[in-house]
Automatic annotation (TrEMBL):
PANTHER family: AMINOMETHYLTRANSFERASE, SARCOSINE DEHYDROGENASE. Keywords: Acetylation, FAD, Flavoprotein, Mitochondrion, Oxidoreductase, Phosphoprotein, Transit peptide. Residues 762-846 form the Aminomethyltransferase C-terminal domain. Belongs to the GcvT family. It comes from Oncorhynchus tshawytscha. This is Sarcosine dehydrogenase, mitochondrial. Pathway: Amine and polyamine degradation; sarcosine degradation; formaldehyde and glycine from sarcosine: step 1/1. Residues 369-424 form the FAD dependent oxidoreductase central domain. Pfam families: DAO (PF01266), FAO_M (PF16350), GCV_T (PF01571), GCV_T_C (PF08669). The gene is SARDH. It comes from the Eukaryota. It is found in: Mitochondrion matrix. The keyword Acetylation applies. It is an enzyme of class 1 (oxidoreductase).
Length: 870
């Protein structure tokens, strides 16, 4: 007898049965080109083309053309075809190089959990559950093998318990040999056809659901697919007496899961030293690797700790197969930036079965309507900067860290350690020396906060000591991160407070160089600006406008500032050559790739003759904010900074201690202030001059942790937090960014007009609570004891000295959410099972009249501040 406790194994094969979804295909007779959600209709399953194993080709000829070709017959591929058909696409082909589920799906553990760290992921899992447990059996009459075991999440410490409280036509044996790509008259690459050994299919859409083979398939079309293949394993025990009613168990702290399998258990998990599969074989179908017990033993120890009987239980089989993993342990989805019509549905990090239903539906909607229904930015391939997606060091290191930390607690202020310092700005070295604790966004190192105890540089990745690599010793940066592993206020809360209040009462400098900096020029630039931007950006040259960019449904794809430029000769990088209209776009750096691709896609779809150029790496940007900012900058800029000469929302090129800069009077923190956009070689001299001029005003460096607090206090939105692609500007309190009073058409206008006429069914609301308890988002919102939404974003406002949260609420009766509905309700917020009274606000509780950004402060403001400080 082989026992788990001694790690002696008895090897046997294990091949789970295939579900009806992976054995069949569906077609639908309903089609809708509307951007609204499509009503799904089930019809009998038919037209399944099959090939016997070992056959020389498909039993039916390949079609000459298709509306879409899905490549890869695993969970996601089958779910995508299923949902495309249900949404009305009648000519869809699924190509599988071997047989359905032959790659990674067939050896899945088959678990479907319901707790995930975001509201969208919870909804995706819920749809998968609906499809597998109900829809398929209703439509086909076939059992899917769904077993309702229940689930048990085990918390071994307070932090883990706190985290749990917070979350509550098929053609086989037909390998693809090539993807044909054509270039249209505008120079845009588009999918043309799919080549196989058995023929070529003309199609405008290819969906890459090839799992661990997805990178190879991407290469055929010139598309970068940033994933790696690793061995992933579980073992199945012999029969265990009395275990039949046990729920599935997930013990994150032991990095192990236990799944009931009849009268036995499957045991698996995520280790810190996974085995990479560097040479992915095209011949690997329904195959397994030998299990490396030296790697797997750590899971055995955790399992025995939870179920002591396992120590004397035999092993019936081992399952070690390939899985694809990504840099942030999230799937790769959406249209590839390199080629129009090439969609990704891969890199599911062993969660393809769990997420397949929800992601398959969203991907189908993406293909048919151009965008998914839900906010899928966290899975969108465009979340990664193009400079990273073919960087093997970044892909390998980050994928390893994400794998190793898959079962780690997701803390609010955690940062990756792998592949850091990929993109740094000219201020990086000097800020590191001043104690900057950096955050990583989009490959950039941006300031998080400033440690008062000296430098804490980010070191090279040590792989957590795996693979015989020595761990970094006395790693100060990692130690500082570890101290913030809490769901309470972090130990550096007072440091963030000081950075915030220095900005509110004096002056602070923020390095925002990671921002995306684009120029929009060309003959159709004005036409493009009118269509792309919800606000009227065609003011006089020298004006700067805060605006949104929308999708067809009126959802917010981005928020940014657009500055109208003077026509003239090039003065790069501060000004492009422009014979006509030209615009400078400043965009949050973490979403710059998403914005770039959204703009390019719209320009291509509309056939507009424009040039979009990226100068993000060529300029730095510092923002000097606070009541004393004018006094500091007036010493180094050669232009009048008075309200009359340099009003809010304007910009001009001027000299700063002998260096040309573009100064913009803007604020993301709600204070008097200017941004300086500076050519790379001039960054340090200008920064040093600012700090020297500000010394007598006690100027300090501040980071993005302070910006998060200051901006929520002022009521400014953060894209992808309290402003997402499924939120309209009307719902988000940003109606002022929409040129609705003009007759100028813009993308999404029709949807906004319809929504405005019907009244808002959901809208964002600001809440404050008197108790000093930390909140981070996802806390439930109750009105008169009835749940009406959850917080999207929360932080502490140090000036008003209250916890602040923003969330979207609905009327439980389905009615309009207006000011009376908000004012008449009694609101509470629930945090980890405890309910707190909350006060709703229709306007920001901080400076609702916007006096401070206009430079209007009480006459005795600075004297009062000095007295309080003393």
């Amino acid at each position: 007898m082989a026992f788990l406790g001694t790690a002696v194994r008895k090897v046997a094969s294990c091949r789970p049965a295939l579900s009806p979804l992976c054995r069949s295909a569906t077609t639908s007779r309903r089609y809708s080109s509307s951007s609204e959600p499509t009503t799904e209709k089930s019809v009998p399953y038919e037209n399944v083309l099959k090939v016997e194993e070992g056959g020389s080709g498909p039993t039916k000829p390949l079609p000459k053309s298709a509306e879409a070709v899905v490549i890869g017959g695993g969970s996601l591929g089958c779910q995508t075809v299923y949902h495309l058909a249900k949404m009305g696409m009648t000519n869809v082909v699924l190509l599988e190089r071997d047989r359905l589920t032959a790659g990674t799906t067939w050896h899945t553990a088959g678990l479907l959990w319901q707790l995930r760290p975001s509201d969208v992921e919870v909804e995706l899992l819920a749809h998968t559950r609906q499809v597998i447990s109900h829809d398929l059996e209703q439509e086909t009459g076939l059992e899917t093998g769904w077993i309702q075991n229940g689930g048990l999440f085990i918390a071994s410490n307070k932090q883990r318990l706190d985290e749990y409280k917070r979350l509550m036509s098929v053609i086989e044996n037909c390998p693809v040999t090539g993807i044909q790509v054509s270039t249209d008259d505008m120079g845009v690459k588009r999918v043309k056809a799919v080549e196989t050994f058995h023929g070529t299919i003309q199609t405008p859409v290819v969906v890459n659901c090839a799992g661990v083979w997805a990178a190879k398939l991407g290469e055929m079309a010139g598309v970068k697919v940033p994933l790696v293949a690793m061995h992933h394993a579980y073992v199945v025990t012999e029969r265990i007496e009395g275990i039949q009613n046990m729920p599935n168990v997930r013990d994150h702290d032991a990095s192990v899961y236990l799944r009931l399998q009849g009268d036995a258990l499957s045991v698996g998990g995520y280790e810190q030293n996974p085995v990479f599969w560097d040479k992915v074989s095209d011949k690997f179908a329904f195959s397994l690797f030998d299990l490396d017990w030296d790697v797997f033993m750590q899971h055995i120890e955790g399992a025995i700790n939870r179920v002591p009987a396992l120590e004397q239980t035999g092993i019936k089989s081992t399952v070690c197969g390939p899985e694809s993993f990504t840099a942030d342990h999230k799937p790769l989805m959406g249209e590839a930036p390199e080629v129009r019509g090439f969609f990704l549905g891969c890199g599911f990090n062993s969660a393809g079965m769990m997420l397949g239903g929800g992601c398959g539906r969203e991907l189908a909607h993406w293909i048919i309507h151009g965008r998914p229904e839900k906010d899928m930015y966290g899975y969108d391939i465009r979340r990664f900067h193009h400079s990273l997606t073919d960087n093997n060091k970044w892909i390998r290191e980050r994928s390893h860290e994400s794998y190793a930390k898959n079962y780690s607690v997701v803390f609010p202020f955690d940062e990756p350690l792998a592949s850091r310092n990929m993109r740094t700005d000219p201020f990086h070295k000097v800020l590191t020396e001043q104690g900057c604790v950096f955050q990583e966004r989009h490959g950039w190192e941006r300031p998080g906060w400033f440690n008062q105890d000296g430098a804490a540089p980010v070191l090279d990745y040590d792989w957590y000591g795996a693979y015989d690599i020595s761990k970094n010793q006395n790693y100060k940066y990692n130690e500082l991160l570890g101290k913030e592993y809490t769901f309470d206020y972090p130990p550096h809360h007072h440091v963030i407070k000081n950075e915030c209040l220095s900005c509110r009462h004096g002056v602070s400098v923020f390095n925002m160089s990671y921002f995306g900096k684009f120029y929009l020029t060309g003959p159709d630039a004005k036409k493009a600006a009118d269509w792309l931007f919800s606000a009227d950006v065609n003011k006089i040259p020298g004006s700067t406008v805060y605006t949104c960019m929308l999708n067809k449904r009126g959802g917010s794809e981005a928020d940014l500032t657009v500055s109208r430029l003077e026509a003239g000769a090039a003065n790069l990088p501060l000004a492009p050559e422009a014979n006509g209209d030209a615009y400078y776009l400043a965009i949050g750096g973490g979403v710059a790739e998403h914005n770039w691709n959204h703009i390019k896609t719209v320009l291509q779809d509309e056939g507009l003759n424009c040039q979009l150029t990226d100068y993000s790496e060529d300029m730095g940007m510092i923002s000097i904010q606070g009541p004393k900012s004018r006094e500091v900058l007036q010493e180094i800029l050669d232009t009048d900074l008075s309200n009359e000469a340099f009003p809010f929302s304007t910009h001009k090129v001027c000299n700063a201690v002998g260096h040309k800069v573009r100064a913009m009077r803007l604020s993301f923190v709600g204070e008097l202030g200017w941004e300086l956009h500076i050519p790379k070689d001039s960054c340090l001299p200008v920064y040093q001059a600012v700090m020297a001029a500000g010394a007598k005003h006690s100027i300090i460096n501040a980071g993005y942790r302070a910006i998060d607090s200051l901006s929520i206090e002022k009521g400014y939105r953060h894209w992808h937090a309290d402003l997402r692609p499924d939120d309209t500007p009307l719902e988000a309190g940003l109606a002022f960014t929409c040129k609705m009073k003009s007759t100028i058409p813009f993308l999404g206008r029709a949807s906004l007009e319809k929504q405005k006429a019907e009244g808002l069914r959901r809208r964002i609301v600001c809440f404050t609570i008197d108790e000093k308890v930390p909140m981070f988002g996802l806390e439930a919102i109750f009105r008169n004891g009835v749940p009406v939404g959850h917080l999207r974003r929360s932080d502490y406002g140090f000036f008003i000295d209250k916890q602040i949260g923003y969330g979207y609420i609905r009327n439980p009766d389905g009615g309009v959410v207006n000011a009376d509905f908000i004012k008449s309700g009694k609101f509470t917020l629930e945090r980890m099972g405890v309910v707190y009274e909350a006060k709703p606000h229709l306007k920001s509780p901080f400076d609702p009249s916007n006096n401070r950004v206009k430079g209007i402060y009480p006459d005795n403001y600075h004297n009062v501040y000095k007295a309080n400080a003393q």
